[in-house]
Design goal:
The chain contains 12 helices and 4 strands, in the order H-E-H-E-H-E-H-H-E-H-H-H-H-H-H-H. By secondary structure, the protein is mainly alpha-helical. It has a single domain, classed as Rossmann fold (3-Layer(aba) Sandwich). Strand 2, helix 3 and strand 3 form a beta-alpha-beta unit.
């Protein structure tokens, strides 16, 4: 995995410091995480425990009736191993009451609704508990647009957003995330039998190699094909990155004044402190 190998010890120090700095400097001491039992949310939870202490970390487990029971079991393994706070809130009643109105909704609509329902719950819990929401989307997912806008992509801070999926696996092993979590097939658990790689149509290992050269090394499409990647694979991934750019930007504000938020009125998150 040339170019994708990371110094996990250094990466841990950087991300623990990032979580501490970004939470403390805006006046908070606690973090809250949607813990699915997958590798990304588990890795973030391990980092948050190191950064904030177990007493200042809350994991919220939010299963749906068709969720894989192993996901809940794996989430509880993380909770028990780290000794952090947790709450379990099932989203089945909210989701089913909504789709009773739209019984013909497809899996995409249902999956997006579940992701957004979980995030509304997480933000409500963050107010009650006085914590910032810590995100779990990795760089691969963000570049491919493989996430729900204002759903699992929402957060106050994101430690994994500049780390590819294969790099998350390296970090997870370094942190001591259980192998049962690292080794299972990645899944958003949005419907029965759903897996990330099955839905995407390629493996994370393959797409991470391509994305690293495309984004970090700035290879052109022709250079990527010359490097040995199949042309249809290159074009498919490039189109996913291009077409999902809107998901990686704040909402566009129409400019009608001298100082427009996001263009002229730009200050650090902790401005004034």
């Amino acid at each position: 995995m040339s170019g994708l190998d990371v110094n996990t010890e250094l990466l841990e120090r950087l991300l623990v410091g990032f979580i501490q700095d970004e939470i403390y400097k805006v006046g908070f001491t606690r973090g809250i995480i949607a813990l699915s039992g997958g590798i990304d949310s588990s890795t973030v939870t391990y980092l948050a425990k190191r950064a904030l202490g177990p007493e200042n970390v809350m994991a919220v487990i939010m299963p749906y009736k068709t969720s894989n029971p192993q996901s809940r079991e794996d989430a509880l393994v993380v909770v028990n191993e780290l000794g952090i706070n947790y709450r379990e809130l099932e989203i089945t009643p909210m989701i089913d009451s909504y789709f009773a109105i739209f019984p013909d909704a497809d899996n995409i609509r249902r999956g997006n609704k579940m992701a957004r329902e979980r995030m509304t719950i997480l933000y409500d819990q963050s107010v009650e508990w006085g914590a910032l929401v810590i995100g779990t989307s990795n760089k691969t997912e963000l570049l491919l647009g493989y996430g729900t806008l204002f759903g699992d992509m929402a957060s106050a801070i994101n430690p994994l957003g500049d780390i590819y999926k294969t790099q998350v696996r390296q970090l997870a092993r370094h942190l001591g995330v259980p192998e049962r979590i690292i080794g299972k097939k990645p899944s958003a658990d949005l419907w029965l039998g759903q897996t990330d790689e099955g839905e995407l149509g390629f493996t994370y290992e393959d797409v991470d190699r391509l994305l690293h050269l495309m984004v970090d090394e700035r290879y052109s499409l022709d250079e990527l094909i010359d490097a040995g990647f199949a042309e249809n694979f290159v074009l498919k991934v490039h189109e996913k990155v291009r077409s999902s750019q809107y998901k990686r930007r704040l909402p566009v504000i129409a400019k009608v004044s001298k100082r427009t938020i996001d263009r002229d009125f730009r200050y650090a998150r902790d401005w004034g402190r």
